[in-house]
Predict the structure of Putrescine transporter PotE.
Amino acid sequence: MSKSTKMGVVQLTVLTIVNMMGSGIIMLPTRLAEVGTLSIISWLVTAVGSMALAWAFAKCGMYSRKSGGMGGYAEYAFGKSGNFMANYTYGVSLLIANVAIAISAVGYGTELVGVTLTPVQIGIATIVVLWICTLANIGGARITGQISGITVWGVIVPVVGLCVIGWFWFSPARYVSAWNPHHLPLFSAVGSSIAMTLWAFLGLESACANAEVVENPERNVPIAVLGGTLGAAVIYIVSTNVIAGIVPNLDLAHSTAPFGLAFAQMFTPTVGKVIMGLMVMSCCGSLLGWQFTIAQVFKSSADEGYFPKIFSRVTNANAPVQGMLTIVIFQSLLSLMTISPSLNSQFNVLVNLAVVTNIIPYILSMAALVIIQKAANVDPGKAKAANVIALVGAIYSFYALYSSGEEAMLYGAIVTFMGWTLYGLVSPRFELKNRPG
């Protein structure tokens, strides 16, 4: 590829921000309102931790010679079992996260049309959204990519717009009064929203996947990854805190469409409805893309021999339809299993579980950076600095695990331990392959 057709650092930075934002933010103001505006401290902690993770992932992608993303990174230190566990937990995390995205779409959709659903009806509506967005992927990646590339702006435009113009309606007194409404101890309050803030940054590891189409990747990829993560952090922090100064805390904590509520208060209910419509569109577009992505993740693992071959089969349009249908059946069961008294409660359960399972490959990758750099003969001084940053990322990851709560840790541990059993079933094809006799 010629230099003129490659991405510069600014283009890659913008692409990184867009990829990260997606639909992860649209329910966050509600969850953070339950803690109070002191959740800004959680944002700052997560921003530092996420930038450490992003920098370390950029180094992993730069020096690794193995394919498979985080699975390839983990294999350097933990062998094929580490590769399997990284792919397995990442796949499970995406499977869970997509259900949470579908619930976000249902939350905004119910506010848009003005209906109240029972917990069972919310579960059924979530399943319907998941199936629609899965079946829409049958046409293949090109159509999915075109739709997702347009719909993502349904989130970005209102959120960035709020960051710019929301200050005209911002009330410092309202913001201060919502600082710690439940009078929680500082450490508990900050910890209770760490998992939710990390949820908004999930996907940061994919930012270094475009290194081969970037000018001077050794210099530009780390800058873009760090800059993109910082840019997303600024947008997240500003938008969620502006809302907290516009909408009363109690109203925000009980809303299933917080950004729509904010725009309705700033302008008119009609404008709020338009924003809700944009958010529903964006959620469905994001879910459309992520349902295809998760099928590709499972396909890659199946191609390597980790997952059942059903996930490898593709149609003439190169779409892994059988894999997608299998995945959406599991997601439908998960939607029913996690039915909660309210939509917000179900969303919180899924987000915490998605974060716990996603952190496992993060930790494996951070631990592998030492040997990845040794294998690439990186200058010891540069390697040491990167290893320290990876350690910061790992420490933050463990803190996020701790902060996710006992229930999420319990189910996440069961899911992870189940992975070791599953690896035992496929391990002979890897562990016996190169042994003599």
The mean pLDDT is 87. The CA atoms of residues 63 and 375 lie 8 Å apart.
